[in-house]
Amino acid sequence: MEHIGIIYGNVGTTEFECQIAANVEKTDYIMVNHQTIGPVLGQVDSIERRTDLSLDKAQMIAEGQPVEINEKITAKISVVGFRDDRNLLQVPRTPFKAGEYIYKADDELIRKVIGLKEDKGQGAYVGLLAGHDIRVYVDINSMVQKHISVLAKTGGGKSYVTGVIIEELMKHHVTTVILDPHGEYGSMRDSGNVMETSRNFRVNPKGYASKIQEFATDTKLNKDAKPLRFTLSNLSARNILDLTNIKNVRTYLAPLRKAIDFLRTNKGDYNIEDIIRVLETDEEESLGALINELDYLREVEIFAEAGTRMEELIKKGKTTIINLKGSPPDIQTLVVNRICTYLFELRKQDKIPPLMLVTEEAHNFCPQQGQVASSKIFRTIASEGRKFGLGVCIVTQRPAKVDKNVLSQCNTQLILKVTNPNDLKAITASVEGLTSGMTDEIQRLPIGTAIITGGKITMPLFVEIRPRESRHGGESVTIVESSSEKGLAY
């Protein structure tokens, strides 16, 4: 095996510097022999070209004079480690020797040390390790039990990557609910166009119509969806107030409860208009704000005599899309609050199967600043849902605007290109194991490449995301081919 560099200078147990004699790139994996352990895996954290070109010599070049430039390429290596006799990942306890050769790591050593296996049984195939023909699987049970986040800047491919995750959940018959504000996931019923790239991902086009059912608040706009409605008579006064933007619930709880009791006694079936009429006859209370909120709910038509039953909404092994396209943002948060509350309470009672709740535009439903109707239930699901088999997938282009109490509970992360300083700070605060080099690299990730942590992956990995099998309902998909960047652009 031909060496690619030599260790020099002061040498530690977790990092060292080396002179590079061959073509090596940042994030490449290397192998170095330790004097007592044997082969140890490392990764190029940074790389630098050092020269003796001074300002005076640069001026000479500008004037057309020949100048001899002496240069050396050096790299800083982060030590990943080795597997001990118990198959535990360890780092050496004594430094490497200066003068030791380093080599490019082969796929077998990378698989062994990082712990990458062809785990088709419990793993979601998300792509190939960057620069290697090694499939990367994320443990599905870990995703459901410990939550997952997909983070990217606008146009960074988060919805495309989320579609890859959902395809894998459907393949493994995981019950899934998608909160879809823009109506972009219904396209997964159809086969996609798996485009050719320089990488062989071994993916074929496939539609998932048999796995998907779709409900929408606005069926005029979303004609392929079934109507999503709530049965008013099944809701208590507090339930109805939870569907409004009223902050001072206690003020209106008693008069609303009184109106509902009156209608149940004297009418039986009733609607929002009936409640409003009864409240308008109450001359002792100032109920204008409540009446206005109820009138708004009446206009958006989310109630019906026969609402959507939970056994219709949740079917074991199926994926349910809650299509909110066409509904105003405040109504979206009200609907999401009610559905998430149902899911959490019924999952606690084991009345519905364990499931994954995929939440697009999560910063709108559990914001860091301020409160919306669904804020509280998302904090509850993030902190307690794992105990009851209710996992959540947080998808957002603004990590800094997501409730940090929710984002920090996501133990598996798929991070695509992010450039906003506040978002980078939020990611660094919520993701363990990111080196300073990786944090910098997040800003320069090529489209189609993600840093993945968690899901039984022992360290952050750079992964080229596999193509979608189903049709992508968001931006168009193109191929980027250049000397510096190759991959999918979403």
Break the fold down into its secondary structure elements and pairings.
Elements: E1 5-8, E2 15-20, E3 29-34, E4 38-51, H1 55-62, E5 71-83, E6 89-90, E7 101-104, H2 107-114, E8 123-129, E9 135-139, H3 140-146, E10 148-151, H4 158-171, E11 175-180, E12 212-216, E13 226-227, E14 230-231, H5 237-242, H6 249-266, H7 272-280, H8 288-300, E15 303-304, H9 310-313, E16 319-323, H10 329-348, E17 355-359, H11 362-365, H12 375-384, E18 390-396, H13 404-407, E19 412-415, H14 421-430, H15 436-442, E20 449-454, E21 457-465, E22 478-481, E23 486-489
Parallel strand pairs: 10-18, 10-19, 11-16, 11-17, 12-13, 12-16, 14-15, 17-18
Antiparallel strand pairs: 1-2, 1-7, 2-5, 3-4, 3-7, 4-5, 5-6, 8-9, 8-21, 19-20, 20-21, 22-23
Helix pairs in contact: 6-7, 7-8, 10-12
